[in-house]
Amino acid sequence: MNQAKLGKTDMLNLFKKMLLVRAFEEKAGELFQQNLIPGFIHLSIGQEASSVGTCSVIRPNDYVASTHRGHGHMIAKGADPKRMFAEILGKSTGYCKGKGGSMHIADFSLGFLGANGVVGGGFPIAVGAGLSIKLRRTDQIAIVFFGDGAANRGTFHEALNMAAIWKLPVIFVCENNQYASTTSISYSLAGGSIAGRACAYGIPGYTANGNDVLEVREIVGRAVLRARSGEGPSIVENKTYRYRGHFEGDPQKYRSPQEIDGFKKEQDPIAVFEIRLKTAKVLTDSAAKKMRKDVAQIIEDAVHYAREAPLPQPEDAMEDLFVNP
Amino acid sequence: MTERLLSCSEAFAEALHEEMKRDDTVFIIGEDLRAHDGIFGQFKGLPSKYPERVIDTPISETCLVGAGLGAALTGMRPLVDLHFADFFTTAMDEIANQAAKIRYMFGGQARIPLVIWAPDGGGLSAAAHHSQCLEAWFVHTPGLKVVAPSEPADVKGLIKSAIREDNPVIFFQHKKLFAQKGPVPKEEYLIPLGKGDIKRKGRDITIITYSRMTYFALEAAKQLALKGIEVEVIDIRTLKPLDFEMIAESVKKTYHALVVHEACLTGGFGAEIAARIGEELFDDLDAPVTRIGAKDVPIPFSPLLENYVLPQVSDIVRGIKKVLNLG
Question: Looking at CA atoms only, how far is residue B234 from chain A in angstroms?
Fold first, then answer.
């Protein structure tokens, strides 16, 4: 699948999915403000082009290993916002029956192997999925999303080396939002480029404008083609930015409000794509308005479902440890 | 049942041959497996028979354990060879945070047919980084099953069950027992996880033990039998789930309990067994439950030092006499 073949409907679907991710995240932020979400959450607002663009070029039976900032990946892979909100609110009809919450949410039926509370925890799992694909001789692939901070974990390097020597169909998709929690890449990243680390393992390392959904599609698409044809792994570094703190409530003393506003004004992935679609006459003002209304309705219904959903029974805490105890 | 004498290595390899033949999703992954059919000969004949399913990895324990997990989550049934149990430290996140928790934290969505197999134990002058018994770390982590057999027949029956489990299993085998021979049935059989075995019957005291210390306990029992003391030796074989029913039944008969393991004493699994006996069988005890384990230092190199630190048969004999108040 490449950009040239992308029809009008596909373009609009991409746009709508990005709106859905953002609306989900904004609503999650609101619910958190209202103290309806226990614990803490990490939002991906500003990074929608990366999650949606990447998942738009893979198949339903491909695997995705995600991160602590994973709502967007999961929605982009096709998850149901109702059950996601139910999980985040700690309800029994949530994806994980209220045992995982925002940071440990999964849908194995979608090949979504889970968010992960450990930075860099997804790399070895994705290598294992890639190895399993190779042993089972299917044409699936595995995507592992990670942040710039995870590129400094040992798991990153062990996984790249192993995936490269075995030519596994694993794509390492970095969402470089420039901050690992509070720590800037200007301080923490030797060499300055995550994609650049690919050359040490003899694999392609691509850099994409991670705020341009079509560029993300094109570049991840290249890596997908390579992986599916048995040529092995790639790194794709989507350069992007997160608008919210590391977690909701983060005082963000490590960056200025002007910096955030600058990205919002100039590089917002949704605004950029909307202008492009309108210029190409693929999207009209009224169609965009209707789409936003539809998305708001989906989110409203999902929140309603989640708020009405039953709480788990305390003793449900003892279920699900083992397949057969 | 027809039996023959096999070593623990041979019994293990035979189990793997049977399971890999039975199920083509079973594969083995680890370091240096192919060149010597496993460093203890535990994979004899397997690399040549299953070239694609015995996989050598780079020295990347974190990733090879995590890759085993990822493969288990996506339709395969891996046995991860960790080379030495001491290397668990290099893959603890993949085990304790990922493998142990993924099914639970995702609300029961995942099945994790993963065996992490690790040779452990001292007695080889392999010193601090190649001699530890680390099982207590894993019984203290909900979501893992933990197995540490002694006899070849138990090794075979339990590894076959562990491979067929849909839950993560940490499987320890003592390095000093690979050459240990014992009768193994010729016919195929399984031993379920969570069942202990009484290796010697006795009426005076119950020793609860596992792995290599089972042999030490049997030797101590033999010595004391000459003096008319009848020791019952229970090899729990599986630490988690624990066959406490068997322990309770025995202690209710002998009124005396001694727990023996090679791991260091403080915070060892013996403390858990002793506590449960104390909580649940207090009225059946004629003496306090006593524990024997290694001294609380890293395992030293020089044989005299190592022998001093690790429990010996003489320590067990002394322990029995102490519990029975025989001076």
Answer: 22
Do the interacting molecules here have an ipTM over 0.90? yes
Indicate the domain borders of chain A: 3-318
A265 SS3 class: helix
Largest CA distance in chain B: 60
Burial class (CB in 10 A: 0-12, 13-18, 19+), B61: buried
Substitution target from B26, B64, B109 for chain A, most A beta carbons within 10 A: B109
The rounded distance, in Å, linking the Cα atoms of A9 and B132 is 61
Set B10, B14, B19, B61: catalytic member: B61
Same fold yes or no, B3-185 and B197-322: yes
Interface residue of B29, B62, B63, B193 to substitute, partner A, most A CBs within 10 Å = B63
What phi and psi values does residue A76 have, to the nearest 5 degrees?
-65, -30
Partners of A100 on chain B (C-beta within 8 Å) are 105-107
A113 CB neighbours in chain B (<8 A) are 70, 73-74
Task: Give the distance from residue A47's alpha carbon to the nearest chain B alpha carbon, in angstroms.
Answer: 25
Query: Could B76 and A123 be called an inter-chain contact, meaning their C-beta atoms sit closer than 8 Å?
Result: no
Q: Is B17 a catalytic residue?
A: no
Return the CATH superfamily for domain A3-318: Thiamin diphosphate (ThDP)-binding fold, Pyr/PP domains (3.40.50.970)
Q: How far is A74 from chain B (nearest CA, A)?
A: 14
Per-domain boundaries in chain B: 3-185, 197-322
CA distance readout (Å), A288 to A6, A13, A50, A186: 19, 12, 21, 38
Q: Is B61 a catalytic residue?
A: yes
- pLDDT tens track, chain B, 327 positions: 788 999 999 999 999 999 999 999 999 999 999 999 999 999 999 999 999 999 999 999 999 999 999 999 999 999 999 999 999 999 999 999 999 999 999 999 999 999 999 999 999 999 999 999 999 999 999 999 999 999 999 999 999 999 999 999 999 999 999 999 999 999 999 999 999 999 999 999 999 999 999 999 999 999 999 999 999 999 999 999 999 999 999 999 999 999 999 999 999 999 999 999 999 999 999 999 999 999 999 999 999 999 999 999 999 999 999 999 997
**CATH number attached to the domain at B3-185:** 3.40.50.970
Which of 3.30.950.10, 3.30.70.660, 3.40.50.920, 3.40.640.10 would CATH assign to domain B197-322?
A: 3.40.50.920
Per the CB < 8 A criterion, the answer to whether B77 and B27 are in contact is yes
